[in-house]
Amino acid sequence: MKNQRQKFIRLIHVAKKNIGLSDEDYRVVLEGAVGKNSCSEMNIAELEKVCKTLKRLAFRPNRLTVSDIEVGSANWEQINYIKGLWCKVARVKTDRALNSFIYRITGVRHPRFLTVGSAQKVIVALKKMEGSL
């Protein structure tokens, strides 16, 4: 309950900044919406009402968007680790041979398309080849 209240207060203050309200204008908006001039005096229902009022004044909360490419992509450290292990354990130390190995393990054609989980599968398989596991 307290956490939700704090989120509303943060959202209201972000809206104030994004809309460009002065402190005086901000207090007028609060007073007009719920009859109080400070968020600290408001309950959750009143804070929600203030949020709706600010949205009518053109506030649009930003949503952080994550592209499909960013979700679960293997990081460069993992890919470099895979290439290093490959050079250590493979008989044919070419990129084409590595890509074929990765495809057999994960069904992915190139290391850049690996997810974090599939990169871990490749690392485990290479460690087994090395004899570490």
Give an overview in words.
- This protein has 133 residues and is an all-alpha fold.
- It has helices at residues 2-19, 23-34, 44-56, 76-89, 95-106, 116-130.
- The protein is rod-shaped.
- The mean pLDDT is 84.
Summarize the structure.
Helices cover 63% and strands 0% of the residues. By secondary structure, the chain is mostly helical.
Q: Estimate what percentage of residues fall within beta strands.
A: under 5%
CA gyration radius, whole angstroms: 27 Å
Biggest β-sheet description: none
Ranges where pLDDT stays below 50 over 5 or more residues in a row are none
Proportion of helical residues:
55-70%
Give the overall shape, derived from the CA principal axes: rod-shaped
What would the keywords be for this entry?
6 helices, 0% strand, single chain, 133 residues, mainly alpha
List the helices and strands and how they pair.
Elements: H1 2-19, H2 23-34, H3 44-56, H4 76-89, H5 95-106, H6 116-130
